[in-house]
Structure formats: C-alpha cells, structure tokens
C-alpha cells in the first residue's frame, strides 16, 4: 500500500494573507485541493492523510467532499514545527499500515506535483527504501564569510536541490522519528525528514524532480501558479 502524508500544518505568514496559504482560493479552488487532486488521481496512491492546521479540519473535510477527494482517510493536527507535523502524521499511521508500505511525504503548498514524479519516487522507494525528488542546481552557490562578502563557492556539479514528494518505507520513517526524538538528533536546526535521515546516518536516493513543482511561499509564487494554471487551462480549469 502507498499512503500519502500531505503537510498542511503551517500558517504561511510570508504570503501576507489572513488565511493559511494552503487554503487560499485560486480560481474557486483551494491550493490544498489542487495538491490533493494530484494524489487522488494517481492509480498507485491508496490512501491520503493530511496534517492540518488546527481550526481548519472541518473546512478541509467539507472541501474534500465537494471536490471528490475520497482517498482522504485521516486528518491530524500539525505541531509547533514542520518536523513535529510530519512526526504526528507518521505516528498516526502506526497500527494502520504495514511495515513495508511506502509513505509519501508532500508539502500541501506544492500543488503542481504530476503523475510521473509521483510514480518515480514510489518506484525508487520500493527499490531502495527511500527516495527524494531532486534536480541538479543551475545557479552558483557562494558561502558567506560575513553579512557583506564571500571568498568561497560550492561547485554546482556537487549539488542537488531536493523537494517533495519524498517517499520512505514505513518501518524506516517510523523508527527514525522515534530515534530522532529520543536522542534529539536531526530535529533541531534540521527542518524536514530528508535532513533528519542524513543526520541519523541514512543514505538517501534521488528520484526525478520537476521545475514545475513549485512551493507557494510568497505572493510571487502564487502569481506564477495562477499563470501556469491559465497556460494549461484545458487540464486544470474545468
Ligand atoms: C523539501 C523541503 O525543501 C525540505 O527539504 C521542504 O519543502 C521544506 O519545507 P519548509 O516548510 O520550507 O521547511
């Protein structure tokens, strides 16, 4: 079984809106529903869990019904940090999924995830036990010496830019969150599952990424998202 955990626990203050950015309506549909539809449509996704900001669980339930997201099985509360939110989502699945099931973590504010990206991350996780979507980096990266200057750069050929979806066998992700919180490794100053895994000594495997799979963080990102929907309106704006 392949289970998606969609992280929608944040308040999104950088967007400058009154409502959390995952619930902002774009052409009469909340951002989060665009994201959920990507998973709903994918034939290899069996169930969806949403880690949701408190006070919005009922709204999410109503939207899921309205837009036919019937793979949505669980809605759980977010935590104080991104790591706590993911951990809540993982622990909630204990006893409900099998150890060798694949759990796919995805940001609720990445609404343009497409089928091929999801398929590849699932296949790679089935093969290696984990997989993170990624792309080569095409800008130059400099390390700051101080607030105003630098003398060092990192060769971009050595870099990969990682995003979500990320997929892990359930036994791996569940045991590693327990270990991380018990030993306090990989959770402070490490904001996501991928960096926590590496801090706990796990080798990560790359899956295909996509430039289209943007994270909606600022108002400009929202404009880009709208422009994309309009440019491909036959598929998105029915
Ligand atoms: C994939 C990710 O960049 C972590 O590697 C993730 O999107 C980060 O999300 P955040 O909410 O900006 O920490």
Unreliable runs, pLDDT <50, ≥5 residues? Answer: none
Q: Could you please say which CATH topology applies here?
A: Spore Coat Polysaccharide Biosynthesis Protein SpsA, Chain A
Q: Please report the number of helical segments.
A: 8
CATH superfamily membership, which one?
A: Spore Coat Polysaccharide Biosynthesis Protein SpsA, Chain A
Pfam family, one: IspD
Keywords: Nucleotidyltransferase, Transferase
GO molecular function: cytidylyltransferase activity
GO cellular component, one term: cytosol
Tell me the layout of helices and strands.
Layout: E1 2-8, E2 25-26, E3 29-30, H1 31-41, E4 47-52, H2 57-66, E5 72-77, H3 82-92, E6 102-107, H4 115-128, E7 130-136, E8 141-144, E9 150-154, E10 160-169, H5 170-183, H6 193-199, E11 206-208, H7 219-231, H8 233-236
Bound molecules: the ligand C[C@](O)(CO)[C@H](O)COP(=O)(O)O.
Residues 82, 107, 162-164, 191-192, 194, 215 line the site of the ligand C[C@](O)(CO)[C@H](O)COP(=O)(O)O.
Keywords: Nucleotidyltransferase, Transferase
Pfam families: IspD (PF01128)
InterPro entries: IspD/TarI (IPR034683), Nucleotide-diphossugar_trans (IPR029044)
Question: How would you explain this protein's 3D organization?
Answer:
The chain is an alpha/beta fold. The chain has a single domain (2-230), classed as Spore Coat Polysaccharide Biosynthesis Protein SpsA, Chain A. It contains eight helices and eleven strands. It has helices spanning 31-41, 57-66, 82-92, 115-128, 170-183, 193-199, 219-231, 233-236; strands spanning 2-8, 25-26, 29-30, 47-52, 72-77, 102-107, 130-136, 141-144, 150-154, 160-169, 206-208. The strands form three sheets. It has a seven-stranded mixed sheet, sandwiched between helices. Strands 2-3 form a two-stranded antiparallel sheet. The two termini are 30 Å apart. The model has no long low-confidence stretch (mean pLDDT 94). The ligand C[C@](O)(CO)[C@H](O)COP(=O)(O)O is lined by residues 82, 107, 162-164, 191-192, 194, 215.
